[in-house]
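Supplementary Methods, section 5.1.

A reviewer requested that the exact input to the structure prediction be made available. We therefore reproduce it here, unchanged from the version used in the analyses.
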Amino acid sequence: MNRITQRLDALRASGRKALVSYVVSGDPQPAATLPAMQALVAKGVDIIELGIPFSDPMADGPVIQLGHERALANKTTLRGTLETVKAFRETDSDTPIVLMGYANPIERMGYKAFAEAAVEAGVDGVLTVDLPPEEATEFNAELKAVGIENIFLIAPTTTEERMQLIASLASGFLYYVSLKGVTGAGHLDVSSVEEKMAKLRQITSLPVCVGFGIKDAATAKAVAQTADGVVVGSAFVSIMGELAEQGEQAIAKALGEAVAPIRAGIDEAVSA
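The structure derived from this sequence is encoded token-by-token as follows.
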């Protein structure tokens, strides 16, 4: 069984919700990524989304766009990102890792070559932001062949018919985008999330993790009351950018301190 399913099943059995963190590989310097991942897990992150740097991250807001720019300035590549995952696996064989990015770098490597390299490195899932389900058949087949989950986004504007199509192709979990806009936006509408979650529960039994607009303990707690998991990205990437000159240990420490209240907020939502 894939690590993502194992982790989400275990959390559900224990009555807990997942905290999913996002950071950009190679941001603000390549040496910072591995200790950042380790610090996030140590303080309560259940699943790591590792961003593949890309020159045109269209779904991302200014904070994460800057993270991509810093990583690209460091010449961080898809293959380098896979090497980081492999290094992480030397000390952590349990935490699920999802690569999140855009289709171009994966297509340049080739679907089959990418899938084989990803599973060898220890990747558990892939979320390709700009690959629509209608064009995902070939990639889906290559990921399934090696046991990697293919995770899809669902937006507030997604129709019920399209939600059914996406759910039929997806595995691991569905990523619900909580708002119309880019990552890091601040206008989270919890009631709208609740309505969409109710509809998704009728369509699929897959866990649903919610991201975009979640940045602190309060927003995480609100979303965790209905979602299976909460995704936090811009808040962590912002810390990494602010502390870029202070080195990887300072970054890791600050990330750990930022995670703790968010983890507590999620756990409060469950126990309330």
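The beta strands are 18-24, 47-51, 97-101, 125-128, 149-154, 174-177, 208-211, 229-232. These observations are discussed further in the main text.
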